[in-house]
Amino acid sequence: MFRLRAAELEVSRISVPGAYITLVLVTLHDLDTPALLIDLDIMERNLARVADYAHQHQLRLRPHTKTHKIPALGQRQLALGAVGLTVAKVSEAEVMLAAASPDLLIAYPTFGAAKLARVMEVARHTRVTMSLDSLDVARPLSAAAQAAGLTIGVLAEFDAGMGRVGVDGGEPLLALVQGLEQLPGITFEGLAFYPGQIKMMDQEGAAELRRVSERVAAAIGTLARHGIACPVVSAGSTPTWMHTHEVTGVNEMRPGTYIFNDRNTVNSGACGWQDCAASILTTVVSTARPHQMILDGGSKTFSSDRLANSSEVTFGKLVEEPAALFHKMNEEHGFVDLTHATRQFRVGERVRVIPNHVCVAMNLHEQVYGMRGETVESVWQVAGRGKLQ
Amino acid sequence: MFRLRAAELEVSRISVPGAYITLVLVTLHDLDTPALLIDLDIMERNLARVADYAHQHQLRLRPHTKTHKIPALGQRQLALGAVGLTVAKVSEAEVMLAAASPDLLIAYPTFGAAKLARVMEVARHTRVTMSLDSLDVARPLSAAAQAAGLTIGVLAEFDAGMGRVGVDGGEPLLALVQGLEQLPGITFEGLAFYPGQIKMMDQEGAAELRRVSERVAAAIGTLARHGIACPVVSAGSTPTWMHTHEVTGVNEMRPGTYIFNDRNTVNSGACGWQDCAASILTTVVSTARPHQMILDGGSKTFSSDRLANSSEVTFGKLVEEPAALFHKMNEEHGFVDLTHATRQFRVGERVRVIPNHVCVAMNLHEQVYGMRGETVESVWQVAGRGKLQ
After folding, report:
1. Tell me, what's the pLDDT at B202?
2. Quick one: which H or E segment has residue A302?
3. Is residue B241 within 8 Å of B195, Cβ to Cβ?
4. Which of A64, A139, B13, B324 is an S-S bond match for A256, by CB 3.0 to 4.6 Å?
5. pLDDT tens string B153-210
6. Looking at residue B6, what is its pLDDT?
């Protein structure tokens, strides 16, 4: 009568009265709080949207897995056409080996003998690329690769306006790349940058996008004039993902947050609330103060990240009451101002909250729940959480 | 020649050339970054200072273990005279059972059948007390305790001005306590409050301390007029710990942060920099932008907590260069402005940072290192990290 994909269902109880088998599914109501929920239909739509875009514009897609930190979801991204996966640290690369990616990009200047030994161990299992912005980082990498008899791909990181890592795209970039080309054990594969400064939601966004495009073209041009080709030109950032094809010369994108989206993504204009796959289920634990309720999740559950590019001090959107103001948190307490709410809440009621920044929230949860409607379809260990080194 | 407490030393290599045994100690320089370091001499001084104060003023000391989350340190607090330990969630209570405390105070209104079953399991091993502020929380607790054949101690939480959890100290407190006294399976043991709103560093602090004292006296008085005694009156907060004896009627303190202290504690005036036991060792990974360096730790390493009670947007103090400004972070990047620095830094250099808020930083580290000078004397698993429920 019913066809069940049993491997994907969490069953809390099986009873066999007479000839019938009753499977009791685990639902939203069985979960203790706080719990991080992933709406699988929304997640699949988000994954397909960006995969289709990359395919349409012939862009390499190398999703940043720091958002989900779950090998099974990395595999899903590969199945949808990603050419490889991106990680932030070697510890994340070790975890993401389980996704059997043909390529792992460590998008971070990785320094120190202990980390480099681990990079080489990862590189014995799959192809490894690293982005970096100095010969101080490249030289020990080169030495370690040579000693291990391995070749590591390298992307030179330049600053397209973010002002974080990355050399200036003129002479300093040329000097870096010429230095990289002298080093054994590594192969220069192209350029990387992170355009996190672009705010598409304000009028300045389009202008900054044009400036980034000019900087990228100039960087590629500088190298070309010295006979250096850039097979890969890799850009990051979810808020700008649908503008990637507008940036001259870019042929690779590595968005992360797009798999779930969050309040920051909505605020950036890159998605709507209906595209937010992740929410955190909480319980009201106190209503003792007038016009206020306390949720059983604070900075240990959501992180204390404020809304990006906003002066607003709020920590999430309550699905059940958008007029409620989640304005303050301690480690275990979420303070919600109900002054403008259209309804009241009782102790013990459950409320879902869309977090400001889902990547750092994922990092705080040991496991998360893949939901099909109210049914728990998957329980995922967040294997890459808490990986600092 | 040397007497070694071998159980407390981490040894990286033992070689036996001829008749000599060479023990190579693990030092600061062997640790990969980012790493959270605890200066054991400072920690012991901090522990002794508060234990001595509690003893001198005949105050019960029930330290909040949410700061360290390590059973061995809970044991140390008990050895110095603590009457019990405080935790924030039942999951932390489960972890802290390993400290063999005669008493665990769950200082949080704990709701839901799953959590209550776990509370009862903890209560089979040690005495459990819970602070709460509603009969909606107390009734299911009472039912669960009665069903389990156990008795749980209860502290009624009232609001001494913080505006978080806690009922008003007048009629609502009386109604709560009278309700508690009717419930089987639980025993009313007294009052709890958290005076987190007191800012001793400004002139308002002393006035607010007096107001808190008046509110506490009024709450105790209201209950006394109805023949209700409060064997325990329990106050929290590290910034105000040395003022606990000034608050009328309080006979118990449950500070947490005092074991390590942090930038918030210094800012509150409750300690100096020389009392900060915890720092985070990081590596400079990029100096590509002028007057800036990037550290290999951001919000995943420090948390994104800003300095409390300050409009300053900074995330820690650099031990090696106090004039450097740690003004921005992403998940893996710490942005340090060196405009006013007296020295420059190279890629690969290591820098220690005193975090704004050590409790949330501890929650992000799987293990931390107890240091005696530059030697690693203890490696502790942070057993209570990431406990959300």
Report:
1. 76
2. helix A299-302
3. no
4. A64
5. 999 999 999 999 999 999 999 999 999 999 999 999 999 999 999 988 778 899 999 9
6. 45
Q: At a CB cut-off of 8 Å and minimum separation 6, what does A388 contact?
A: A89, A91, B34, B297, B300, B301, B364, B365, B366
Asked if residue B337 is part of any domain, the answer here is yes
Q: Assess whether pLDDT exceeds 50 at residue B73.
A: yes
ipTM of model = 0.94
Residues A219 and A310 in one domain: no
| pTM check: above 0.90 | yes
Question: Which residue has tokens 């030994």?
Answer: A117
How much is the pLDDT for A25?
A: 77
CATH value at residue B192: 3.20.20.10
Q: What is the pLDDT of residue A1?
A: 37
* Run of H or E residues at A282: strand A278-286
Beta strands in A296-348 (DSSP E): 316-318, 325-329, 334-337
Sign for the CA dihedral angle at B291, B297, B302, B304 comes to positive
- A268, A199 in Cβ contact below 8 A? yes
- Say how far apart CA A199 and CA B354 lie, in whole Å: 32
Please list every residue in chain B whose beta carbon sits closer than 8 Å to the beta carbon of residue A175. none
CA distance B143 to B153: 14
- The alpha carbon torsion through A331, A332, A337, A341 (nearest 10 deg) reads 140
Domain-ending residue, one of A220, A237, A260: A260
- What pLDDT shows up at residue A24? 67
pLDDT at A344: 93
What's the mean pLDDT in A134-150?
98
Rounded to an integer, what distance in angstroms lies between the CA atom of residue A109 and that of residue A327? 36
Are residues A348 and B111, on separate chains, in Cβ contact within 8 Å?
yes
Instruction: Tell me: cis bond preceding B322? Omega within 30 of 0 counts.
Output: no
Residue A92's nearest CA partner among A298, A264, A256 is: A256
Which tens digits make up the pLDDT trace of B276-315?
Answer: 999 999 999 999 999 999 999 999 999 999 999 999 999 9
Sequence length of chain A is 389
Cβ of B388 within 8 Å of Cβ of A301? The answer is yes
Task: Select the residue of B88, B133, B196 nearest A286 (Cβ to Cβ).
Answer: B133
Q: Determine whether the interchain pair B111/A299 forms a contact, defined as Cβ–Cβ distance below 8 Å.
A: no
**Measured between CA atoms, how close is A19 to chain B, in angstroms?**
32
> Does residue B109 have a cis peptide bond before it, meaning omega lies within 30 degrees of 0?
no
| Strands (E) located in A181-221 | 186-193
Helices (H), B150-243: 171-182, 204-225
Contact between residue B161 and residue B211 where contact means Cβ atoms under 8 Å apart? yes
Range of the domain at A202: 57-260
How deeply is B203 buried, as exposed, middle or buried, from its count of CB atoms within 10 A (0-12, 13-18, 19+)? exposed
Q: Is residue A44 part of a domain?
A: no
Pick A32's closest partner by Cβ from B115, B303, B304.
B115
Virtual torsion, Cα B39, B42, B47, B48, nearest 10 deg:
140
Chain A closest-CA separation from residue B19 CA (Å): 32
User: What residues in B contact A363, CB-CB < 8 Å?
Assistant: 300, 331, 364
pLDDT at A21: 61
Q: Is the separation of the CB atoms in B157 and B193 below 8 Å?
A: yes
The answer to whether residues A220 and A275 belong to one domain is no
Smallest CA–CA distance, residue A26 to chain B, in Å, is: 14
Q: How confident is the model at residue A203 (pLDDT cuts 50, 70, 90)?
A: confident
Determine which helix (DSSP H) or strand (DSSP E) holds B375, and give its type and residue range: strand B375-381
Give the mean pLDDT of A80-109: 98
- Number of folded domains that form chain B: 2
The reply to whether B81 and B178 lie within a common domain is: yes
CATH number, domain at A279? 2.40.37.20
Residue B68 tokens, joined: 């360290």
